[in-house]
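Example 3.2
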Amino acid sequence: MPIELGLPIRRTNIDDVRRVVARMSVDEVESKATPASEERSPANDPVVDEPSRWRVEAARALGLSGDELCAGTSTSLAMPAILDPAIETLDLAPRGPVVDLGGGLASTSDWLRRRTGREVVIVEPSAPSCEMAAEMFENVGVINGAAGVLPVRTSSVASVVLNGVASLIDDLKLALFEFERALIADGLVIITDVVATRTVGSFRSSKNVLRTLDEFAEQLAEAGFDVVETDTVAADRGWWSSVQHSVDEQIAANYADRPGFPMWDHDRRRMKYLVNAGIVTGGYVIARSPQQTARAIS
């Protein structure tokens, strides 16, 4: 019997999700799933969920909507310029659903949806984040799931986007194997993230694995993907980062007494230091599914 992996967060959204993201069989899920004892997941982790809730409440207190709501609920670097190549590439990509993996509060998803006309679905491991995303961005599909077992059938997704997520995945090769299964022929993997500069090389900092663009490209190529484009994008100092800063200040003013605040504050200051010191920058990698070659031959 089929099992539905998507958490029905909001009825108006889940009907759309069911239409574009089909069910997987129990046998398939069980054969691919990683035991909970072997996989560290941020799902329902207060360290992850509470700052996200603060961000939503701060954005609401500031009265943000539209593009500013996307900016205010995002923590990604170099936005929105870092998504411009993705938007251009999606215009030429095969038709079909776009999965925003680890989509958090769905700010990236809504930005992409409104600029490409694509149906975008977030797959997010945190149930509270899924609930908040469905409430704020009702035109984005929301599924509670993780990278290791994408809740989609084989060859059903046109593109997988990871915005600020790849640096949180220790074993990227395992995730790429799962993306290969989910993508249709000529499907795309689009990674936008904080990247280490070539002079520094890849390194770990707190919860982040900060890879160079070269390492991202090498791992994609080793997994059989055809790397189409890579480049760096300077940290944005424009309106998007200004809105992010306003939300950060609202959080600092209202949640400094909360248990998770010191860690949240440390992480944002650490990243600001790494950017200002030229140790990391924004970067993106776009690659095509390895399935295209095999299917062309057959």
